[in-house]
Amino acid sequence: MRIISGTLGGRRFDPPAKNWPTRPTTDQSKEGLFNILNNLIDFEEVKMLDLFGGTGNHCYEFASRGCKDATYVDKHGPCVAFVKKTVEQFGIEEQVRIVKQDVFKFIGMNNEKYDYIFAGPPYPLPTIPLIPDLIFENELLADEGTFVMEHNPDHDFESHKNCFDVRKYGKTFFAFFQNV
């Protein structure tokens, strides 16, 4: 896997997992997403949250582009250990806060607001349809913020009152949400 752009652009990181409960975003879909985000977000000013953070891919891209306040959340110990090690190797410890916790517990206990939230839940997770409502009910998204949820064709969020766009890259979908 590689970081697309920014100060860490071109750097590679190789998660050691063959049996991790992760599904890293492909380079093609990640490039498509970040092309959209370049027009929506000031990376140097944004406070971002990465839910189901897995390999840390999303946080690395944000930190590489100047984000100073990224929060990574995942409950899988080996993923968290890998991200801690990679953050240190990249020298971005001051930019990325790592939280080892169940995402749903984090959502319920968190009292901060974020300008950008990304959720890349495992596709077999049965509670995927609940995630957007939980984000808005718990007021995690700042007033002018953007929430992006990665999902597969088994889910459809286009009719959700907060969804303003859906982009498709093969079998990877990104649903974009904002406060209404």
What does this structure look like?
By secondary structure, the chain is α/β, with parallel strands linked by helices. It has one domain: Rossmann fold. The protein is 28% helix and 26% strand. It has helices at residues 27-40, 57-64, 77-90, 103-109, 131-137; strands at 47-51, 69-74, 96-100, 114-119, 141-151, 163-169, 172-177. Strands 3-2-1-4-5-7-6 form a 7-stranded mixed beta sheet, with helices on both faces. The protein is globular. The model has no long low-confidence stretch (mean pLDDT 93).
Question: What is the topology?
Answer:
Blueprint: H1 27-40, E1 47-51, H2 57-64, E2 69-74, H3 77-90, E3 96-100, H4 103-109, E4 114-119, H5 131-137, E5 141-151, E6 163-169, E7 172-177
Parallel strand pairs: 1-2, 1-4, 2-3, 4-5
Antiparallel strand pairs: 5-7, 6-7
The CATH architecture designation is: 3-Layer(aba) Sandwich
The number of helical elements comes to: 5
User: Quick one: overall form?
Assistant: globular
**Chain-averaged pLDDT:** 93
Strand content: 25-35%
Q: Based on helices, strands and strand pairing, what is the structural class?
A: alpha/beta
Strand line-up across the major sheet: 3-2-1-4-5-7-6
In this structure, how is the largest beta sheet organized?
7 strands, mixed
Number of domains: 1
CATH class (first level) name: Alpha Beta
Helix content: 25-40%
* Cα gyration radius (Å): 15 Å
Show unreliable segments. Answer: none
What is CATH's topology name?
A: Rossmann fold
Number of strands: 7
User: What is the terminal separation in angstroms?
Assistant: 36 Å
CATH superfamily: Vaccinia Virus protein VP39
H/E order of the elements? HEHEHEHEHEEE
